[in-house]
């Protein structure tokens, strides 16, 4: 399966909608998108993972890299995920303590964490 990416602006946040699988083959595409957004001055990102079917360690690494990149500009990276199988990966790796994870894009955009 491939990876689909689209972006839109909601308020002062840039929402990256991700669909498909984030793995060793597709993660570079997501990395390029995040780097490009930060280089263009988007420092408050919401990654919508509601349509993600699979996430591996390479994908986690890209998300952590994106977080470091936005934090270097006093920014934020929030995740939208409500699928138990994906949330479990964040729990097992301890990344629930690193990423604010929300149930909807609206919650992520309006959060003040």
Quick summary:
By secondary structure, the chain is α/β, with parallel strands linked by helices. 39% of the residues lie in helices and 33% in strands.
Index terms:
single chain; 113 residues; alpha/beta; 5-stranded mixed β-sheet; 4 helices; globular
Secondary-structure map:
Layout: E1 3-10, E2 13-22, H1 27-39, E3 44-55, H2 57-71, E4 76-80, H3 84-93, E5 101-102, H4 105-110
If you had to describe this structure to a student in words, what would you say it looks like?
The chain has 113 residues and is an alpha/beta fold. 39% of the residues lie in helices and 33% in strands. The protein contains four helices and five strands; from the N terminus they run ββαβαβαβα. Strands 1-2-3-4-5 form a five-stranded mixed β-sheet. α1 runs parallel beside α2. The mean pLDDT is 96.
Average pLDDT, rounded to a whole number, is 96
Largest sheet: 5 strands, mixed
Q: How are strands sequenced across the largest beta sheet?
A: 1-2-3-4-5
Rg from alpha-carbon coordinates:
13 Å
Low-confidence stretches: none
Shape estimate: globular
How many helices? The count is 4
Order of helices and strands: EEHEHEHEH
β-sheet strand percentage: 25-35%
Share in helix: 25-40%
Given the helix and strand composition, which structural class is it? alpha/beta
DSSP strand count: 5
Alpha-carbon distance between the two ends: 34 Å
